[in-house]
């Protein structure tokens, strides 16, 4: 009798152990589908819906970065200061990839390459934006009668959000060629001094001594003969990534040594378009960026992206 009772106790104990080790399935709620409400963003406590903002625009995008709210469409560029930046579903700058995938659902992470359409758009149209931390991104899409929309989270090498972008009709963004112009621009330092380089935000920046000159020595064949690239825009970028000054299209010297100040003499201040840039009053800044533009539709049978050259006066 005692032996039978002992066997029953052992059997009951084994059954309890088995029940304790069986995994009990837990139901997890799938992320809700992306909707119009997910295109609301918050900057400095103010919430705006991107879709509503873009209703009268054919193609538009908004880029939220650490410097604040940088928005741009095909026709106009706008800056708004801000640091409190957030998307919907609790995602903000610094959020993890895991949190995004849990909140918005699974998405394929893609690597950022030099050929990525929006990276080139920012490079050529918003040269004051630092994209050096953009290593990969996650996309979420939504479509309605007014257009196709895309929400993108740019991640750094630690899989943390460093920028958030919203798009309307992404497919109509400019698809810049992969090959850039080569203007042959050269800086000539005064006697006894040298032009050096430094890497800033992933760009090679020329450190140009005060009093230097510059010239360009590259020509291309066009349908009507040879041409140099005389059209360019100049941007002055501040230490915090803000755009301080810029110029409209100017003419550059070709095969003629000209004082380097010629490259920014027509720049106007962003804070006041009627005020011209006085570099001596600016103080510290990050760099100048010059965008050289293709002046002919086809050159040597090709289309080229702008050439971007970065420099500082030292």
Please tell me about this protein's structure:
Helices cover 14% and strands 34% of the residues. With 314 residues, it is of the alpha+beta class. The longest helix has 20 residues, at 2-21. Mean pLDDT is 81; it is low at 4-28 and 73-83.
Proportion in β-strands: 25-35%
Helix content: 10-25%
- SS class: alpha+beta
> Which stretches are poorly predicted, pLDDT < 50 over at least 5 residues?
4-28, 73-83
Rounded average pLDDT: 81
Largest sheet: 8 strands, mixed
Number of strands: 23
Radius of gyration: 28 Å
First-last Cα distance: 100 Å
Sketch the topology as an H/E string, one letter per element: HEEHEEEEHEHEEEEEEEEEEEEEEHEE
Annotation field: number of helices: 5
Global shape:
globular
What are the key terms here?
single chain, 314 residues, alpha+beta, eight-stranded mixed beta sheet, seven-stranded antiparallel beta sheet, 5 helices, 23 strands, 14% helix
Write the SSE topology:
Layout: H1 2-21, E1 40-43, E2 46-49, H2 50-53, E3 60-65, E4 68-73, E5 77-81, E6 85-86, H3 97-104, E7 110-111, H4 117-125, E8 136-144, E9 147-155, E10 161-168, E11 186-188, E12 196-200, E13 203-208, E14 213-215, E15 220-222, E16 225-227, E17 231-237, E18 243-246, E19 250-251, E20 258-259, E21 268-269, H5 279-282, E22 287-292, E23 307-313
Parallel strand pairs: 13-23
Antiparallel strand pairs: 1-2, 1-6, 3-4, 3-10, 4-5, 7-8, 8-9, 9-10, 11-14, 12-13, 14-20, 15-16, 17-18, 17-19, 17-22, 18-21, 22-23
């Amino acid at each position: 009798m005692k032996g039978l009772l002992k066997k029953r106790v052992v059997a009951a104990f084994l059954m309890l152990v088995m029940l304790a080790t069986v995994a009990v399935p837990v139901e997890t709620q799938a992320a809700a589908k992306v909707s119009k409400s997910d295109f609301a963003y918050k900057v400095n406590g103010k919430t705006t819906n991107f879709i509503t903002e873009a209703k009268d625009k054919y193609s538009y995008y908004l880029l939220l970065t650490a410097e604040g709210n940088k928005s741009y469409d095909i026709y106009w560029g706008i800056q708004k200061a801000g640091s409190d930046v957030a998307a919907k579903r609790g995602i903000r700058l610094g959020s993890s990839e895991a949190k995004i995938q849990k909140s918005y659902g699974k998405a394929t992470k893609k690597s950022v390459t030099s050929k990525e359409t929006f990276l080139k758009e920012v490079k050529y149209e918003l040269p004051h934006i630092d994209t050096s931390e953009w290593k990969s991104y996650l996309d979420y899409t939504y479509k309605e009668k007014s257009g196709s929309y895309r929400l993108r989270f740019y991640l750094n090498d630690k899989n943390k959000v460093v920028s958030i972008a919203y798009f309307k009709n992404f497919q109509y963004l400019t698809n810049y060629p992969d090959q850039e112009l080569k203007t042959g621009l050269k800086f000539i330092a005064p006697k006894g001094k040298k032009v050096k380089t430094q890497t800033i935000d992933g760009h090679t920046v020329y450190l140009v001594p005060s009093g230097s000159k510059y010239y360009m020595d590259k020509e291309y064949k066009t349908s009507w003969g040879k041409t140099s690239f005389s059209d360019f825009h100049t941007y002055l970028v501040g230490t915090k990534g803000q755009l301080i000054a810029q110029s409209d299209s100017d003419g550059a010297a070709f095969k003629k040594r000209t004082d380097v100040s010629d490259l920014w003499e027509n720049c106007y201040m962003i804070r006041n378009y009627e005020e011209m840039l006085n570099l001596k009053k600016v103080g510290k800044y990050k760099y100048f960026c010059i965008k050289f533009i293709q002046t002919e539709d086809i050159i040597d049978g090709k289309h080229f992206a702008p050439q971007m050259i970065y420099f500082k006066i030292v």
